[in-house]
Structures are given as C-alpha cells and as structure tokens.
Design brief:
Number of strands: 8
Strand content: 5-15%
Order of helices and strands: EEHHHHHHEEHHEHEHHEHHEHHHHHH
Structural class: mainly alpha
Largest sheet: 2 strands, antiparallel
Distance between the termini: 91 Å
Helix content: 55-70%
Shape: elongated
C-alpha cells in the first residue's frame, strides 16, 4: 500500500495514500481506544461538521480572509461530506481527550484532501489547501465542535419526537379500541375502583404526549451557538463581523433556526442546555419504563397473574419451560430506559467538570446524548411496532374480576355510608362471599334495583354521585 508522509509539530507519520484523513486523525486512532464506536456511526454529526466548515468558508470568503478559489473548493468538498459520501473517513472514537480536537481535525483533514483532489492535487499537498490554515480558518475546536454537536442534536431530536408521537398515537388507538372493556383499577397493587381499560391506555398516551413540548423547549436552548468565539470566546483570529455572518450562513445551509449567543465567553464553557436536554430524555425514559412495567403486570400469567391483556408473542421464553412466553419487548425497553437514566448522570458530571473558559468533556457529553436519543428512538419504535399495536384485551376475564372484587364496595359509600361499606368489605374478605350477596341478599342494605342502578358499566367507569 502506498504511503504519504505528513507532519505536525510532534513529528512525522506515514499515512495510507488512499485515506482522506491525515496525521492528527491518525494520532487519535492510536490514542483513543475507548468505545470502539467511531464518529461515522453518527452520520448526522459528520453532516453537521460539513455544515460548519461550509458556512465558515462562505463567511471567510465574503470577508476576504480566505482566497475565493480555495473557499469554493472547501465549500464543494464540504457539500460532499454533507451528502455522506465520506462518512467512512470519520474514524475518531466518540469519547476522546482534547475537547473534540480530534473530531474537528478529522473533518478539517478530510475536507482539505477532498478539496485538493478536486483542485487536481494529491492528498497531503496542504500548501494548496491546508486543514488548519484554510478549512479551519476563523475557527477553533471550541466553537466548531459544539456548533456541529448542537446542529446534530437538533436533527436527531426531530426523528426522536416523531417516534415518541407515533408511540403516543398507538396507545391512544388502543384506548379507543378498549373503551368498553371494564377492569379493576389498582393502587399499591391492591384492588381500588373500577375503570375502563381504554381509559388506562388513553392515560398512557396522554402521559407520553406531554413530552413533545419539553423536547421543543430543549431544542430552543440547543439552537444557541458560539461560532466566532474561537478559543475562549474573545474571537481571536476571527475577522470583524464573522460571528454574525457565519451564523447567517449556518441558518441557510442547515434550515435550522440557529442564533448566536449573546455572550460568547459564557457560551464557550456553558453546558446547561445539555443538562436540560438530558433531563428531558431521562424524564421520558422514566415514563416509558413505568408504562412497560404496567404492561408486564397487566399481561402476567397467563393462568396465575393478572392476565388482563395479551402481548404479542415474540419468541419462546425459556430453554427449559415449554410454552412459556416472556414480555421481551417491554423488558428490553425497560433496560434501554435504565441506560438513559444512567447517561443523565454522565451528562451532569461532565457539565459540572468544565473549568474556567472551556468544558473539555464535550466528547462524553456528545456520546451520552447521541446514544440516549438513538436508543430512546429505537425503544419507542420497537415498543410500538412489536408490542402496543398487537395488544389484545381479555374483556370477560377483566369484567369478572371487577364484579368479584371487594373494591366495588366503594360505590356504595354514598348510599349506605362508609361504616356499613367497610363491614361488607371485611365480611367479603373473611368469608369469600361477594359484595353483592352481602349487601343485597344478606344485609338487605339496598335493593336489587338500586344495585343495578349503581353498577351499570357507565357508572362504574365514569361514576356519577348516586344516593
């Protein structure tokens, strides 16, 4: 394999001639063996780096600090990166030291070498288009990396919101399907009062529907960028007017409503927006996991559990117990939620660890947030497609459980009073007799006609005050 020689201030290295990255990316490949997950696994991040380099070249061209011919080739090369053509050249580990410098240089080197080839030069002939002098012109890792990170987050959140909304819609559809299924509601895992299974599933939908506005709030915070801050927010090496111009171009090329931070020094070290977003992801993960716990309980059995609903059977559940089918989809979603909840602590610690004018922990912030968004999107899709849409109800079983429960005695409180109702409950619990037989036949507290008035389906699921 042919090689080219590249150098930086630490020395020289041999680089395979066919790759588009250069010496600083090679050093990252040697130094960071942490996750084994390369940058190319997050194509939206690669795309966002292309957006940043393109907008920077456009602004630098307009301001006369970058040769127009070189700028045009950087713009064209960036477009090819944005298209995904060179995703396989982005190999830096997502968790790395250096505050993301290796990621930024990976982008600078790839774009420089793509531009060189388009100009008719060989890879590595950086005198014609240099990764630092030209592609990174008016930039620092400390503004280019977080800006690309935020653009990628905004685009990932769009897909996540769609999956979350589809899951909520699936629960709402089941709520309508199960609207006439009578069941017993429970508190502290004990019989409470009757309700509709449809209302239970509708509540799941409402619970998840509350999350989309929170995601939008987080996106608004993420949309504030610090381009032009360069190293620490003072704008060193950036020409006058660059910040506003590059932000304008970024809005145009991304189609996103990006805004320039009012205080670039504060914006260069602050990670509050990431903490907010992570908290929203954790909040949703907790909610989804709670719902999955409920699905597992409601489908437990089939003979010795609640057995109120049936989850779609996805695979045999045991290597030793024939016929056993486990709730594997809610289980895997539970586990995904645990990861996201744990990743929130990583984000919290990384955000707090910022020192003075820079937070060097952004790589682990990016890893935690990218994976959390991806995993939650996948979990919502999996739960919807492989579980929720196929759930069926055991309507007769749930109705019998309601009518045989002691919990229905609560409906008698307004008619015969709490003391008599409590006495019925105690006797039913001790003897195994039904509430109906004790209240109507033995104690004759109410007539059969009154019982029928109180215990209609509509009154059980949407109680009216009856005396």
């Amino acid at each position: 394999m042919s090689k080219r020689i590249e150098h930086d201030f630490l020395g020289e290295m041999e680089i395979p001639q066919d790759v588009y990255y250069g010496i600083q990316t090679m050093r990252a490949l040697e130094n960071f063996h942490i996750t084994g997950i390369p940058l190319k696994v997050e194509p939206l991040f690669v795309q966002s780096l292309g957006y940043v380099k393109k907008a920077a070249a456009m602004a630098n061209r307009d301001l006369g600090v970058l040769d127009k011919n070189i700028a045009e080739y950087i713009i064209k090369a960036s477009d090819r990166v944005i298209s995904g053509e060179f995703n396989d050249q982005f190999l830096s580990d997502l968790i790395q030291g250096g505050a993301g410098t290796s990621v930024n240089m990976n982008a600078n080197e790839v774009i420089a070498n793509v531009a060189l080839e388009m100009m008719g030069h060989k890879k590595g002939e950086y005198q014609f288009c240099h990764p630092n002098n030209h592609v990174n012109c008016s930039q620092s890792t400390n503004d280019a990396y977080p800006t690309a990170f935020r653009i990628a987050l905004m685009n990932k959140l769009t897909g996540y919101k769609e999956e979350l909304a589809l899951l909520a819609d699936a629960f709402a559809s089941k709520g309508e399907e199960f609207r006439n299924v009578l069941k017993m509601g429970r508190t502290q895992l004990q019989d409470a009062v009757p309700m509709s299974l449809g209302d239970e599933f509708k509540a799941f939908a409402t619970n998840l529907g509350e999350e989309s506005p929170r995601v939008e709030d987080s996106k608004r915070l993420i949309s504030e960028i610090n381009m032009g801050a360069t190293a620490i927010g003072t704008g060193v090496n950036a020409p006058k007017g660059y910040s506003d111009l590059v932000t304008k171009y970024l809005r145009e090329v991304t189609g996103l409503d990006l805004s320039l931070a009012a205080d670039l020094i504060e914006a260069t070290y602050d990670a509050g927006a990431y903490v907010q977003l992570s908290g929203v992801l954790k909040r949703t993960a907790v909610k989804v996991s709670k719902i999955c716990n409920d699905l597992r309980l409601l489908s437990s059995g089939p003979r010795t559990g609640f057995n109120e609903i049936n989850l779609p059977p996805m695979q045999p559940g045991s290597s030793i117990m024939p016929g056993k089918v486990n709730p594997v989809i809610p289980e895997v979603v539970n586990q995904t939620a645990y990861y996201v909840i744990g990743a929130d602590l990583t984000v919290t610690l990384a955000a707090e660890a910022g020192q003075l004018q820079l937070n060097v922990m952004e790589p682990v912030l990016s890893f935690a947030l990218f994976t959390s968004i991806s995993y939650m999107s996948n979990a919502c899709r999996t739960l919807r497609e492989k579980c929720v849409v196929g759930i069926t109800a055991n309507a007769e079983h749930t109705r019998q459980m309601v009518m045989n429960s002691i919990g229905i005695v609560t409906q008698l409180n307004p008619v015969i009073g709490y003391e008599k109702s409590a006495g019925i409950a105690r006797e039913a619990l001790e003897t195994g007799k039904s509430v109906h037989d004790i209240a109507v036949k033995e104690k004759q507290y109410i007539s059969q006609e009154k019982w029928d008035e109180i215990f209609t389906f509509d009154n059980l699921i949407r109680p009216q005050f009856i005396k």
